[in-house]
Amino acid sequence: MNPQNIQTVQVKVTGMSCNGCVRAVENALTRTAGVISSKVSLEEGRAEVQY
């Protein structure tokens, strides 16, 4: 993949209450077609996704 084509977006994630929730969201994002990486923060209630 060409690094120039990589986009990053931050999205609000609500309803998370534990690290298990964080792992579930990260796993779901990682399995999504086109997603390169994801970082989910319980404390900030958001996810950063590269695609």
Task: For this entry, give a set of tags.
single chain, 51 residues, alpha+beta, Alpha-Beta Plaits, three-stranded antiparallel sheet, 3 strands
- Oligomeric organization of the protein chains: single chain
Helix fraction bin = 10-25%
Unreliable residue runs: none
Distance linking N and C termini: 10 Å
H and E string? EHEE
Q: Compute the number of strand runs.
A: 3
User: Radius of gyration from the CA trace?
Assistant: 11 Å
Mean pLDDT across the residues is 95
At the third CATH level, what is the topology name? Alpha-Beta Plaits
Principal-axis shape equals elongated
Judging by the overall fold, what is the CATH architecture?
2-Layer Sandwich
Taken as a percent bin, the fraction of beta residues is 25-35%
Count every helix, treating DSSP H or I runs of 4 or more residues as helices.
1
Name of the level-1 CATH class: Alpha Beta
Q: How many strands, which pairing sense, and closed or not: the largest β-sheet?
A: 3 strands, antiparallel
The domain tally reads 1
Structural class: alpha+beta
Strand order of the largest sheet: 1-3-2
Polypeptide structure, described:
The protein is of the alpha+beta class. The chain has one domain: 2-Layer Sandwich (Alpha-Beta Plaits). The chain is 24% helix and 29% strand. The protein is built from one helix and three strands. The chain has a three-stranded antiparallel β-sheet, covered by helices on one side. A hairpin with a 4-residue loop joins strand 2 and strand 3. The model has no long low-confidence stretch (mean pLDDT 95).
